[in-house]
């Protein structure tokens, strides 16, 4: 049976931590769909289209990865894409409470959905999109935090 996992997030921008989770998920599932959320309420630094381009560029060399944008409920997107598993990343204990609540919420909306929590490698455990955005605001160094394809896009936007 072809197992499809959906990895939803804002990816503002996609980081090495996100990429690490995608690679780990590919070892467990036949296909991983990276779902870039519109998330206007979060006031993202990059447009949805730009975030999709960054995610596609960062993952273009990986087999069985698809990148899509969305602006509906995650479980609705998962159902429309035939995904039965949601991937969520956990960096620290502080992430766990929120992610656990979200997992329970999604299960209450669709009893057929499962959430799998993956941890990034230790070297990426501190990396987050918000850290990258803060560094970008002050022209800080980010090339060690994002895939080279993403850094090229970010660098060309300066």
Structure description:
- The chain is of the alpha/beta class and 158 residues long.
- It has one domain (4-157): Rossmann fold (3-Layer(aba) Sandwich), CATH 3.40.50.620.
- The protein is built from 6 helices and 5 strands.
- It has a 5-stranded parallel β-sheet with strand order 3-2-1-4-5, with helices on both faces.
- Helix 2 runs antiparallel to helix 6 (148-157).
- It is globular.
- The N and C termini lie far apart (45 Å).
| Overall body shape | globular
CATH superfamily: HUPs
The first-level CATH class name:
Alpha Beta
Averaged pLDDT: 94
Helix content: 40-55%
Strand runs, count: 5
Strand content: 15-25%
CATH topology label: Rossmann fold
Low-confidence stretches: none
CATH architecture: 3-Layer(aba) Sandwich
Helix count, DSSP H or I runs of 4 or more residues = 6
For the biggest β-sheet, the strand order reads: 3-2-1-4-5
Kindly give the count of domains.
1
C-alpha-based Rg, rounded: 15 Å
Mind summarizing the main beta sheet?
5 strands, parallel
Instruction: Give the class from helix and strand content and strand pairing.
Output: alpha/beta
Q: N- to C-terminal separation?
A: 45 Å
What is the element string, with H for helices and E for strands?
Answer: EHEHEHEHEHH
Give the tags:
alpha/beta; Rossmann fold; five-stranded parallel beta sheet; 18% strand
Annotate the secondary structure layout.
Layout: E1 4-9, H1 16-28, E2 31-37, H2 48-59, E3 65-70, H3 74-80, E4 85-89, H4 93-109, E5 114-118, H5 129-137, H6 148-157
Parallel strand pairs: 1-2, 1-4, 2-3, 4-5
Helix pairs in contact: 2-6
């Amino acid at each position: 049976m072809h197992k499809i996992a959906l990895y939803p997030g804002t990816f503002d921008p996609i980081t090495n931590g996100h990429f690490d989770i995608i690679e780990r998920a590919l070892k467990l599932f036949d296909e991983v769909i990276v779902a870039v959320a519109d998330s206007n309420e979060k006031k993202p630094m990059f447009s949805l289209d730009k975030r999709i381009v960054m995610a596609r560029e960062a993952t273009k060399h990986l087999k069985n990865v698809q990148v899509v944008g969305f602006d509906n409920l995650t479980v609705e997107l998962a159902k429309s894409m035939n995904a039965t598993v949601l991937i969520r990343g956990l960096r620290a204990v502080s992430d766990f409470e929120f992610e656990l609540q979200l997992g329970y919420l999604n299960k209450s909306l669709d009893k057929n959905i499962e959430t799998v929590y993956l941890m990034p490698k230790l070297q990426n455990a501190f990396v987050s999109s918000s850290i990258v955005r803060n560094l970008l605001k002050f022209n800080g160094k980010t090339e060690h935090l994002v895939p080279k394809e993403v850094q090229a896009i970010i660098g060309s936007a300066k």
